[in-house]
Specification:
The protein is mostly helical. About 80% of the residues lie in helices and about 0% in strands.
Length: about 200
Amino acid sequence: MQEVIVHLVSQYGYLGVFLLIAIENIFPPIPSEIILAFGGFMTTYSSLTLTGVVLFSTAGSVAGAVVLYSLGRMLNARRLEILLNSSAARRLRLKQEDIRQAGKWFNRYGSWAVFLCRFIPIVRSLVSIPAGMAKMRMTVFLPLTILGTLVWNTVLVYLGRLAGEAWVVVASYLDVYSLITLVAFALLALAAAAVFIKKRFIQRR
């Protein structure tokens, strides 16, 4: 994967950065850390500039985020009701009230979630879906997405530039950061699942 990313960015410059970051937002397993760190390194010996790489990577991130936001908007109340009436949802004891509660939570804290999650691997892409489902106004979603993404991209591109030929080291440290944050989120998800199971299954019995 790293070789492909390096080749595309070297071959297509800003366009390669834009497309790779846009795709990474829609398919999170693609490592944006490598794209951004290598893009920063390229500013030290090619015609690419720090500002250009940051702007094109941010544009790619926002484009990908808007696609996922639009998918979330498509999951309207009627479609969610159909999902909740499925046999799988009934087995999990999911209710419409759960959707309403999730919507209330996102309406209350969604702005912070959209901004802060831009600094968390994988989650920074997926948070666009609940934002769309909650019908967050585009006039709110876009500025928060642009700001959070701009900060994240600027830091990574600048680190890649500072590291120079050692940009791979920066990417490896970011891999560690990604792993730690994902483990933390997995633990939170397990804790939330445990609470849900206790309330819906154990306490009722």
